[in-house]
Amino acid sequence: MANITIEGRIATHDAKPFRGRIDIDEKTGLISSVAQAAKRGGRPAAHVYGDECLIFAGFGDVHIHAREDDTGKQNYKEEYATAANAALGGGVVHVCAMPNTPNPVVGKSQFAWHRSRVGTLRHAVSILNYVGIDAKTKPLGKPGEHMYKLYFGKSVGTLTVTYAGELDEILSRYKGHNISFHVEYEPIVQAHAHGKTHTERRPAECVNEGLRLLLPLIEKHGIRAKLCHWSTGGESFEMIAEYRARGCDIVLEVSPLHLLFDTSMTDQDPSLWLKIQMNPAVQSPEHRRALIRALKEGFIQFLATDHAPHTVEEKHSAFAKFRQPEHARALKGMRVHAMGNKELAEAVRAKDEALFLETCCENNQSGAPWLDTYGLVCAWLINEHGFTPQEVARAAAFNPGRFVNAHLKRQFPRTNFGKGFGEVKKGFMGSLTVLNVKKKTRITRDMLKTKVGWSALEGRIMPGAVEAVFIRGKR
Questions:
Q1: Same domain, 122 and 207
Q2: Does residue 407 form part of some domain?
Q3: Is the predicted pLDDT of residue 39 greater than 60, yes or no?
Q4: In angstroms, rounded to a whole number, what is the distance separating the alpha carbons of residues 26 and 440?
């Protein structure tokens, strides 16, 4: 049996890093052995990494938007192939795609189309699919067979449940199922529609009230719940802790955007909204610090990007108003109808900085691409916030692996994943992420693989680098 051998500091969720050797079976792509480097003889390792690097089980992102579906309407933003390429660049080896595409993934026919498309693609990154829930849907199988997503509050797309009454009726059909929730109470969002900034339009209150209504229903119907892209600490954490203590199965995601940005930054530079507007919105520095602490301590289980590609033009959509006669006066003498949104923004800025910044705060398209920078965010957590390698391994590899492993056989019926993703142990996938925690990376547009070609971190120097990614032992 031929093996590929990788040597270096191995980082796992349950032990301090140790210098070891990983043998991966070339035929199966599964790990055949892991041992301390000093205790192994034989031929030299094919790949050797110094102590500046950490070798993790391949990172997984349980919340992305790939945009592609049978309509092709949003393929200009992202496709499965470009999302998977961005994932590889960020050190991510498996992803889970959300169902709110133009033709939502809510039934067997839509789900079959996406699984066929992923199968045809045969990309090195393993892509799994969620199934959407709305007022008309029913489970596609028994509890545990599928990953579901329910939007309790409107975001991007048509899948929305607005009121607790209809939510109760819907969840009664999904007793015991795995459901990921977007939580923002829509009536509060609507009541704040005229807020100056996105945070004022989507305050912490809309998340907390949505949670207050949702938690009793999770308990009532025995839902295995994952709360997506969590944005608030304090009161919401207290409610979640209470229901966990009562036996409810509730886990949490946090996005890089909510870990890296807060309202003190947008107050200082309102133009940041053009990059970081997201549903739910960023909140105060106190909330951001609480999220970082909760991820470190394990109260939050997943680092999940909510990779949501929108074009630069879409992110500047508020500037489209300057084509209208009542606003075009600000750009008198310019051919505003021939200008794109970004070009309009640049023209407004040149004429009137205050008006530009004011418009930046208006409602643009929510969402940002993050897959390209996943590994860099992990290195940032280690270097800037004192995360141990174990804590990063737990949130970026082990927990995502456990989440997807139960669905691999159903979504990839002809593929051998062994024991799956998430651990550097015999029988698990020989898919690994190597982080260099000493090297720095300046994020530039030419390094990005996402189809929309931009990043909220563009120009920023991050304290780390993705040194290598292995898929089934192949670099």
A1: yes
A2: no
A3: no
A4: 32
141 inside domain:
yes
Q: How many CB atoms lie within 10 A of CB 18?
A: 14
Is-contact 182 153, C-beta < 8 A? yes
Q: Which amino acid is at 383?
A: N
Sequence-ordered strand ranges (E) for 294-401: 302-303
Pair 49, 153 in one domain: no
Same domain, 229 and 352: no
Per-residue buried b or exposed e for 112-134, using 16+ beta carbons within 10 Å of the residue's own CB: eebbebbeeeebebbbbbbbbbe
DSSP 321-337: GGGSHHHHGGGTTS-GG
Please give the Cα distance from 400 to 251 (Å, whole number): 11
Domain boundary (346, 376, 391) is at 391
For residue 457, what are the domain limits? Answer: 3-56+417-470
Please report the pLDDT score of residue 164 as a whole number.
82
Contact 80, 121 (CB under 8 A): yes
Residue 417 has pLDDT above 80, yes or no: yes
Spatial distance between the Cα atoms of 288 and 400, rounded to a whole number of angstroms: 22
Backbone angles phi, psi at 312, to 5 degrees: -60, -40
Judge whether residue 157 has pLDDT over 70: no
- For residues 179 and 196, give the distance between their C-alpha atoms in angstroms, rounded to a whole number: 33
Which residue type does 316 have? H
Q: Percent of the chain beyond pLDDT 70?
A: 98
| CATH number for the domain that contains residue 29 | 2.30.40.10
Q: Residue range 224-238: average pLDDT?
A: 98
The answer to the question of residue 139 being in a domain is yes
DSSP code string of 38-102 = GG--SSPPSEE--TTEEEEEPEEEEEE-----TT-TTTTT--HHHHHHHHHHTTEEEEEE-S-SS
Kindly tell me if the per-residue pLDDT of 427 is higher than 90.
yes
- Predicted confidence band at 453 (pLDDT cuts at 50, 70, 90)? very high
Task: Give the pLDDT confidence of 319-369 residue by residue, as tens digits.
Answer: 999 999 999 888 888 998 999 999 999 999 999 999 999 999 999 999 999
Q: Which amino acid is at 428?
A: F
284 domain-assigned: yes
Give the distance from CA 209 to its chain's centroid.
23
CA angle, 179 as apex, 190 and 220 as ends, to 5°? 85
CA distances from 191 to 161, 194, 274 (A): 17, 8, 23
Edge-to-edge strand ranges of the sheet holding 131-133: 131-133, 147-152, 178-183, 224-227, 250-254, 302-303
pLDDT of residue 41: 57
